[in-house]
Automatic annotation (TrEMBL):
Keywords: Cell membrane, Membrane, Transmembrane, Transmembrane helix, Transport
Record flagged with keyword Transport: yes
Keyword Transport on entry: yes
Subcellular location: Cell membrane
Family statement drawn from the similarity comment of this UniProt entry: Belongs to the GntP permease family.
PANTHER family referenced in this protein's UniProt entry, alphabetically: GNT FAMILY GLUCONATE TRANSPORTER, HIGH-AFFINITY GLUCONATE TRANSPORTER
Chain segments annotated as transmembrane: 6-22, 27-46, 121-146, 158-176, 196-217, 248-273, 293-316, 328-350, 370-388, 459-478
Pfam families: GntP_permease (PF02447)
Predominant place of localization: membrane
Protein's recorded name: GntP family permease
C-alpha cells in the first residue's frame, strides 16, 4: 500500500507546481491535485478511512467502490454547502459597505477617536476589523488612498501607515470568519464558527500588536517618502483628503452589517455553552423563546444573510434616487465571491481526497508521544505551502485538509481551535513575488520590490511567529477539552 505521506507529497507538488510552474489557476491546480491523489489511493485505504469515521461497513465498502469523479464531486459539493452562502454574502456586505461609504465612515470615525498623532493605531485597528467582512485586496484598495491623504496631512510616517494597513488586513484575512480561508477551515476542522471568531480576534490582536512594534522600528530604520505615480497622483490624493463626510452614512448604520452577524453568532455560541437542558434559562417560557430566536439568527448562514440585508438597506438609503439600483453592485460582488467559492470548493475536494488516504491517522501515529507537536506542524505545513505558491487561502485549505482528521481525534489533548489558529498564522509566511497581495500593496503604495521585501515580508513573519507562540501558550494553559 502506498504510504499516505508519499501521496500527500505528490498532491502538494502538483498543486504548488501547477500554480507556480504551469501558471494554472488555483481552481484547476487543486482539482488536478485531487484527481491524482484519488487515483493513487487504494480502495482498502478509503474503506479503512470510512470505518474510522464510524461509517457502517456496507457504506464504507460502497464509498471505496465509488468512481474517482464521483468522490471528488461529492467533496466539492459538501464544501460548497458549508461555505457557499457565507462567502457570497460576505462579498455583498463588503461591496455594499464600500459603495455606501460605510467603510469610509468607520475609518474616519476611528481617526477622530484616536486623533491624528495616533493615526497608525487607527489604521491598524480599522484594517483588522474591516478585513473580517471585506476581502483583503478590497481593504488595501480602500485604505491606501486614505493613508496617502493622512501622510500629506501630517507630513511623515508613510511606511508606518502602509505597514499598519497590511498588518491588520492580513491577519483578519486568515484568522477571523467570514473571511474565505477561516470559513473553510472551521467547516473542515469542525470548529464552532463563534469560537473561531473569538479566538481569531484574540490571537489577531496579539499579532497586530507585534506587527505595530515592528512597523515602528522599520519606519525609523527605512523612512520612505510619499511618491507621485501615474495611477495615484498626489493632486488626486489631496482631493480625497479634502472630501466632505456629509454624504457618508451615520456610524451606527455603517457598523450594522458587521455587528449583526458578529453579535448573533457570538450570542449563539455563548448560549450553547450556558443553556443546557434543565437549566433555569431553558425552563422560563420567555427566556426559552428568546433563546430559540437567538439560535435561529445565530445560525451562521442566517446571521450573514441578515448582515447582507442590512448592508443592502444602508446602500439603498445612500443611493436613493439613483437610476442604476442595487443590481449592479450585487452582480459585481457575486462575480468576486464566485471565484473564491470555486477555489475553496476545489480545495475541499483536494482535502477530502487527502483524508481518504489515511493521512490523519498516519500523522496521529507520528505525534502520539507528543501531541503538542501538532500545533507547530500545522503552522509549518501552512507556511511551506504559502511560501511556495503565494496564496494564504490555498495554504489554509491545503493544511486544514491534511490535518482535519485530527480535529475529531477523541484523544487530542487540546481543542481543535488551536490547530485552526496555527494554520491561520502559518499561512502568513512568507509573502514574496509569487503572492498577488504582495504586488497589490507594492503598486498601490508605490514601494519598490526591494522595499517591500525588507518591510512587508518580515512584518508578516513576525506576526505569524508571534501568533504561534501565543497559541502554544494558550493550548497549554487553556486546553478547552
Amino acid at each position: 500500500m502506498t504510504d499516505p505521506l508519499i501521496i500527500l507529497a505528490v498532491g502538494v507538488v502538483i498543486v504548488v507546481g501547477g500554480i507556480i510552474g504551469l501558471k494554472l489557476h488555483p481552481f484547476l491546480a487543486l482539482l488536478l491535485g485531487a484527481f491524482v491523489v484519488a487515483l493513487m489511493t487504494p480502495a482498502s485505504a478509503i474503506e479503512q478511512f470510512a470505518l474510522s469515521k464510524g461509517t457502517a461497513p456496507a457504506a464504507a465498502l460502497a464509498l471505496a467502490k465509488k468512481g474517482i469523479g464521483e468522490r471528488i464531486a461529492t467533496e466539492f459539493g459538501n464544501t460548497c454547502g458549508k461555505i457557499g452562502i457565507l462567502i457570497a454574502m460576505a462579498a455583498i456586505i463588503g461591496k455594499c459597505m464600500l459603495e455606501s461609504g460605510a467603510a469610509e465612515r468607520i475609518i474616519r470615525s476611528m481617526l477622530r477617536l484616536t486623533g491624528i498623532e495616533k493615526a497608525p493605531i487607527a489604521f491598524l485597528v480599522s484594517s483588522f476589523f474591516l478585513g473580517i467582512p471585506v476581502f483583503f485586496d478590497t481593504v488595501i484598495f480602500l485604505m491606501m488612498p486614505l493613508a496617502k491623504a493622512m501622510t500629506l496631512r501630517i507630513g511623515k510616517n508613510y511606511l508606518l501607515l502602509v505597514l499598519c494597513i497590511m498588518a491588520g488586513a492580513a491577519m483578519a484575512n486568515s484568522l477571523v470568519p467570514p473571511a474565505p480561508g477561516p470559513l473553510f477551515l472551521v467547516g473542515e476542522m469542525h470548529i464552532p464558527i463563534g469560537m473561531m471568531m473569538i479566538g481569531g480576534t484574540i490571537v489577531g490582536l496579539f499579532t497586530i500588536t507585534a506587527g505595530y512594534f515592528f512597523a515602528l522600528w522599520a519606519n525609523r530604520k527605512w523612512p520612505i517618502p510619499l511618491r507621485d505615480s501615474l495611477d495615484a497622483k498626489l493632486e488626486d490624493i489631496k482631493l480625497i483628503a479634502a472630501k466632505e463626510t456629509i454624504h457618508l452614512p451615520a456610524l451606527g448604520l455603517s457598523l450594522l452589517p458587521v455587528l449583526i452577524p458578529l453579535v448573533f453568532i457570538c450570542a449563539d455560541t455563548a448560549l450553547t455553552a450556558m443553556a443546557t437542558p434543565g437549566t433555569p434559562l431553558t425552563q422560563s417560557p420567555f427566556l426559552g423563546k428568546l433563546i430559540s430566536l437567538i439560535k435561529f439568527f445565530g445560525d451562521k448562514n442566517i446571521a450573514i444573510v441578515t448582515g447582507g440585508i442590512a448592508a443592502l438597506l444602508v446602500l439603498a438609503k445612500e443611493k436613493k434616487g439613483s437610476k442604476e439600483g442595487l443590481t449592479p453592485f450585487v452582480q459585481a460582488a457575486l462575480m468576486s465571491g464566485g471565484g473564491i467559492i470555486l477555489i475553496t470548493a476545489a480545495g475541499g475536494a483536494f482535502g477530502g481526497m487527502l483524508q481518504q488516504t489515511g493521512i490523519s491517522a498516519r500523522i496521529a501515529d507520528m505525534t502520539k508521544d507528543y501531541q503538542m507537536a501538532l500545533i507547530p506542524m500545522a503552522f509549518f505545513i501552512a507556511a511551506v505551502v504559502r511560501t511556495a505558491q503565494g496564496s494564504a487561502t490555498v495554504a489554509l485549505i491545503t493544511a486544514s485538509g491534511i490535518l482535519s482528521g485530527m480535529a475529531s481525534n477523541a484523544h487530542l489533548e487540546f481543542h481543535p481551535l488551536y490547530l485552526g489558529l496555527a494554520i491561520g498564522c502559518g499561512s502568513k509566511l512568507v509573502p514574496w513575488m509569487n503572492d498577488a497581495g504582495f504586488w497589490i500593496i507594492c503598486k498601490l503604495s508605490n514601494l519598490t520590490e526591494r522595499e517591500a521585501l525588507k518591510t512587508i515580508s518580515p512584518l508578516l513573519v513576525v506576526m505569524g511567529l508571534t501568533g504561534l507562540v501565543v497559541i502554544m501558550i494558550a493550548a497549554q494553559l487553556f486546553p478547552l477539552v
